[in-house]
Amino acid sequence: MAHADGWIRAYELLEAGRDLPADLRERVMSNRSGIGETMLHWYAIEGDADVVEKIIGLGFDVNTVNSFHRTPLFECATIDRWEIVALLLAHGARTDVKDRNGQDVFEALEDQDKHDKAERLRKLVAESRSL
């Protein structure tokens, strides 16, 4: 899996606190990786929370899905990126989006015997609703 055109440069600029040139912003907002991931998917999995916040600020839909019909939150909950999960929830990420197997994130975690992760996600969802 590789970065799509412009993602690394955009990340570097955002990390440095700089604005993206209009052409670069347009490019990173519209392109996807070979498995349908957006820049938000990629860096939600790989990046720092402060830069992910800036990526969301560019206008990315936090509920966009990849080729597996998984949202950034779905991917992050699976790999213990809890700070990013909380950030995505704060920006309106949904937990009811079904993947290509017809499971929402809770069902997928439970099906993989990751009950502790499902419980942690439930707590984060409850906390985000109380804010």
Question: What does this 3D model show about the protein?
Answer:
This protein is mainly alpha-helical. The protein has one domain (7-130): Ankyrin repeat-containing domain (Serine Threonine Protein Phosphatase 5, Tetratricopeptide repeat, Alpha Horseshoe). The protein has 8 helices and no strands. The chain is globular and about 45 Å long.
Topology overview:
Blueprint: H1 7-15, H2 22-30, H3 39-46, H4 49-57, H5 72-78, H6 82-90, H7 105-111, H8 115-130
Helix pairs in contact: 3-4, 3-5, 5-6, 6-8, 7-8
ANK repeats: 35-67
Keywords: ANK repeat, Repeat
Organism: Luteolibacter luteus
Q: Tally the structural domains.
A: 1
As a percent range, the share of helical residues equals 55-70%
CATH topology (level 3) name: Serine Threonine Protein Phosphatase 5, Tetratricopeptide repeat
Structural class: mainly alpha
Keywords: ANK repeat, Repeat
Organism: Luteolibacter luteus
InterPro entries: Ankyrin_rpt, Ankyrin_rpt-contain_sf
ANK repeats: 35-67
What's the short story on this structure?
The protein is mostly helical and 131 residues long. It contains eight helices and no strands.
Key terms for this structure?
131 residues; mainly alpha; Serine Threonine Protein Phosphatase 5, Tetratricopeptide repeat; globular
